[in-house]
Write a structure and sequence with these properties.
eleven-stranded mixed β-sheet, alpha/beta, 354 residues, 17% strand
Length: 354
């Protein structure tokens, strides 16, 4: 039989445990760890990741810690590569989630019937401009299109750093510029769609034919342009601005600029794929990616994009949207016209003589 003393001590212990539980719950809320991250999920999913591999890797590790019964594997693919692969796998899909890379490529996938509508509970914390109005994708970061410039190369050459699209056409920049291939890179397709929206289609293609004379090569990945500029293989990489603080923190002599005529931007998106294997685990992973906790993992992995969740704290070195003259970039138009514009670029620009 319990004595009064035992009952008293038991009551104190219960109150102490309840108080501890309250503190733990409060910490979870403050950290933004999703409530549905309890260890009840199981199975394995594959995700195609279009953003920095380090960020993707850390996100997967943290998600699996919170969900010991679940496993997420990922393959790093550029936007165009992911779109082509998902389309080719239609009917025998391997991946459940497409995660990272510009939203206009996701819009193209939506138009091709490759995405499943899913509105995450976390989407309530994300402004409408950063998500699909029909619920097929949601943005978790934002990046501004600009120029990554190698300071050492510009000092060596004695050139003034470009601050406009037009300056890139100067013959002195022959073989000193890198832009990725719009057919494989979501970044480079954003360049293409930006110029068409800025100048008009025929004028943009006339511009790209001139720019072609100065482009050293067109790598498959958009991030390669910034890396090549950082390494000094070229003077200018056309890339998203968050590459600059990332490369600078790694010790590369880089700075950035944004074209004064105007520029586009990306919304890094995440989406559930149509007929995805293990869709419930896929949805839970999307919830985690969009959460405050999931988004803030980017800075820990050396990624410096602006974040979309209103409760998340963007990195202090993230480039604010106000720093550039932004176009009213039309993601729906860009997605709808992707195949046609890439085909025209291949036939009129990529195949033309320098």
């Amino acid at each position: 039989m319990l004595t009064k003393q035992h009952k008293k001590e038991g009551g104190k212990e219960m109150r102490r445990l309840l108080s501890l539980c309250t503190v733990v719950v409060a910490l979870i809320v403050l950290m933004g760890i999703p409530a549905n991250s309890a260890p009840k999920l199981s199975g394995t999913i594959l995700a195609y990741a279009g953003h920095q591999e380090e960020w993707a890797k850390l996100t997967v590790e943290e998600f699996e810690k919170l969900n010991p019964g679940a496993k997420v594997e990922f393959i790093r693919l550029s936007g165009g590569e992911a779109l082509a692969r998902i389309d080719a796998e239609k009917g025998r899909l391997q991946a459940s989630v497409w995660w990272g890379g510009p939203a206009d490529t996701f819009m193209a996938a939506k138009g091709q019937g490759l995405l499943e509508k899913y509105v995450s509970p976390e989407a309530a914390q994300i402004d409408g401009m950063f998500k699909d109005p029909d619920g097929f994708w949601t943005g978790f970061y934002v990046g501004i299109l600009g120029f990554t410039l190698n300071d050492r190369e510009f000092n060596r050459l004695g050139y003034t750093k470009p601050t406009s699209w037009n300056e890139l056409l100067d013959p002195k920049f022959k073989d000193l510029i890198v832009m990725a291939n719009p057919g494989t890179s979501g970044t480079a397709y954003t360049v293409l769609a930006t110029l068409v929206q800025l100048m008009g289609e025929d004028e943009a293609f006339a511009y790209l034919k001139q720019l072609h004379k100065n482009v050293q090569q067109y790598p498959t990945s958009g991030s390669a342009a910034g890396r090549m500029a950082g390494l000094g293989e070229v003077a200018v990489g056309i890339d998203f601005g968050h590459a600059v603080p990332q490369l600078a923190k790694q010790g590369y002599p880089v700075s950035g600029s944004y074209p004064k005529e105007g520029t586009g931007y990306e919304i890094g998106a995440v989406a559930l794929l149509k007929d995805a294997p293990n869709p419930e685990l896929g949805k839970a992973f999307i919830d985690f990616v969009l959460s405050k906790y999931g988004q803030e993992l980017g800075e820990k992995a050396g990624a410096y994009q602006l974040l979309t969740n209103k409760t998340a704290l963007s990195p202090s070195v993230a480039i604010p949207l106000s720093q550039a003259k932004l176009l009213n970039y039309d993601f729906e138009w860009a997605g709808r016209n992707r195949a046609r514009l890439v085909e025209r670029w291949n036939s009129e620009v990529f195949s033309s003589k320098k």
